[in-house]
Design brief:
The chain is α/β, with parallel strands linked by helices. Helices cover 17% and strands 38% of the residues. Helix 1 runs antiparallel to helix 2.
């Protein structure tokens, strides 16, 4: 079983996923607008260029298919967006410098909730809300 995160946005999904692709080093494998979907006639014209479904594949380039993870998302239909609460998207890496790189990249124009630092359980851990309102935890486990 795999569990992947599906994020909802208030009209800025495309910008968010291009940002995540740069920060996380993944590859966007799908970005479909509402205009491109079979249900386009059911969406207001001003919403046609918003994203119906986006998929960012993480772990590409050396990771086995079993290690690959997906980050997916879309723009909510008008009037349906609710700001995220009660969860964080957790990123786990094996090298402290990679944890710091990802943390500071995601924190750009966002809000740091807990600065990245060594903790009793990890060599690096930090929490932030990115510029799109998505909450993130970045973790690098202790080397045994």
């Amino acid at each position: 079983m795999k569990i992947n995160s599906y994020l909802m946005f208030d009209g800025n999904c495309e910008a968010a996923f291009k940002f995540y692709e740069q920060c996380l080093g993944g590859k966007i494998t799908m970005m479909m607008t509402h205009k491109e979907a079979p249900s386009a006639e059911n969406v207001p014209p001003e919403w046609h260029d918003k994203i119906m479904h986006a998929c960012l594949e993480l772990g590409v380039g050396g990771a086995s298919p079993a290690e690959n993870r997906l980050l997916m998302g879309s723009d909510c239909p008008p009037g349906y967006f609710e700001p995220p609460q009660g969860f964080y998207v957790q990123v786990s890496v094996s090298k402290p410098d990679e944890a710091e790189r990802i943390f500071y990249a995601l924190a750009e124009n966002g809000k740091v909730k807990m600065a990245i630092a060594q903790t009793f359980w990890s060599s690096r851990f930090g929490m932030l809300i990115d510029q799109f309102g998505t909450p993130w935890m970045v973790n690098c486990e202790q080397v045994a």
